Amino acid sequence: MYIVQCTSYVVLVKGLETDFMPPNKPATPDPARTLSLLWRHTLSPLRTRGPRPSLTVDRVVEAAITIADEQGLDAVTMRSVAQAVGASPMSVYTYVPGGKTELLDLMIDVVYLRAERPDQGGLGWRERVLSVADQNRAIYAAHPWLIHASTSRPPLGPGVITKYEYELSAFDGLGLSDVEVDAALTFVLGFVQANALRAADAAALPEATAMTDAAWWEAQAELLGRVVDPTKFPRATRIGEAAGAAQGGAYQADAAYRFGMDRVLDGLGQLVERQKKV
Amino acid sequence: MYIVQCTSYVVLVKGLETDFMPPNKPATPDPARTLSLLWRHTLSPLRTRGPRPSLTVDRVVEAAITIADEQGLDAVTMRSVAQAVGASPMSVYTYVPGGKTELLDLMIDVVYLRAERPDQGGLGWRERVLSVADQNRAIYAAHPWLIHASTSRPPLGPGVITKYEYELSAFDGLGLSDVEVDAALTFVLGFVQANALRAADAAALPEATAMTDAAWWEAQAELLGRVVDPTKFPRATRIGEAAGAAQGGAYQADAAYRFGMDRVLDGLGQLVERQKKV
DNA sequence: AACAACGATGTACATTGTACAGTGTACGTC
DNA sequence: GACGTACACTGTACAATGTACATCGTTGTT
């Protein structure tokens, strides 16, 4: 048994010199089981014998999301989730056999499934795309931990797929090819994510470092003045001071979002125009 | 002594219920010391007594960068860095008193300081901005760990400032205000970072999960077919299949970069045009 | 020669994900 | 009604992390 695990892991990290079993890595990954969980299938051929389960996948996922929202992703540990649902740490693995990785996949899909998706009939494409961006921004604001979730190989559950379908529809009727529509959506969502990332850690830093933005800038400015020759870095000193000192992190992220979305929409607009002329 | 640390930490995380000293957090943060280190100042009033230092800040930072480049940021531990320079784990703190956080700041600045910055005289603004983007992309390709570094409150060392000055100069002569120039640069770099992020974890996933992109897609497609009603998600099934199955992760990131940069430059172009007319 | 300042090191602790072995429960079959 | 089997649950254990603290050793100054 142990041999099997070790062997499979050696395959997993081929090229590694050491052969010990590292901690905190893979549990038992299995795409099929994860998919079944995402769609809440009772893949087991009907459970009969044994004690009745005292929890459900949903309750576990719910607890994890609450913890992540309130205290950040780092606070989501198997132990904290277990405590939140009133079970022992290892019990969680009964409901989420894939461990923490699988749990995160489930969390992501649930959040997306719940998001609001207002009807966009009658809106122009710019309003539709802006609305999609705003919705994603709102999701990130409510669940900052989502920003750090990888977007390649997303958990293909009902939430993710519903969201994808809805967002693709914003590009209906523009004469773009399938590949272009996907690229355009990726482009928009990439911008929103990058902006949310900046906003989130700008918001987190004051607490994490026990220092306000203003205090940090003041300290840097005073010390940099003695070290840096302003004539060697004219743009950096002038623009950096203007961009940094004046505005707090939160306001800055807001301005960057509006500025960026204007550029994004203008950029897409040119693609659309070009396509219409063909 | 211990009291002082604890007290300062209570201030640090005011609002937290518990009062224990958590692990792996702050070492001794001090903006002034970090800045001195970044600029390699001998802030101490001339070291005289005591054994000669056997290492330098640069050697430590160098080792850390090498490890990060070759094995990823997770492999950069105080212990692995110490081993690489042939010292005991705790010795590292002699040269980088701020611990891992400060070490990361130093790594970032060194990488930026070394980056190539070719002369851009004679180029049009589109070429200049594209070149800036390409350079950042190349840096991320060579040092994927940089992607995860926070960009708010960057380490204001010689590398970061030189890079900032250089990149701002790409927007010279366009008639944009200081605030607009900073916003435009942030916009461009944000796109590059978002793209690099996707590319990096698309590249990392096959190794990390012992599963090729093709195998993953095949597994998902087969199972999803039984669960999802294609008529309910027409766009998602059609476009998702086209966008996902056909291309591997690496090629996809490349295409997304070219597509995105075209939109970014078009978007900025409209801003520039508008400014010229005024 | 004694002292003071500073570099180096070993030990210790709290925290993480999860493998493994063991304990108890409830249903189906005899 | 007794029994066995499948399953839920739990406690223990381990390797790895950042870094506080106390100690030891080395060097130049007094």
What does this protein look like?
2 copies of one chain form a homodimer. Chain A is mostly helical. Chain A folds into 2 domains: 2-41 and 54-112, Orthogonal Bundle (Arc Repressor Mutant, subunit A), CATH 1.10.10; 118-277, Tetracycline Repressor, domain 2, CATH 1.10.357. The first copy, chain A, has helices at residues 2-12, 31-38, 57-71, 78-85, 92-95, 99-114, 125-142, 158-169, 178-209, 213-227, 234-245, 249-277. In chain A, α3 crosses α6.
Kindly report the average pLDDT value of chain A.
Answer: 85
In total, the number of domains of chain A comes to: 2
Number of helices of chain A: 12
Distance between the amino and carboxyl termini of chain A: 63 Å
Strand content of chain A: under 5%
Considering the chains and any ligands shown, give keywords for the structure.
mainly alpha; 278 residues; disordered N terminus; 2 domains; homodimer; Arc Repressor Mutant, subunit A; Tetracycline Repressor, domain 2; DNA-binding; 65% helix
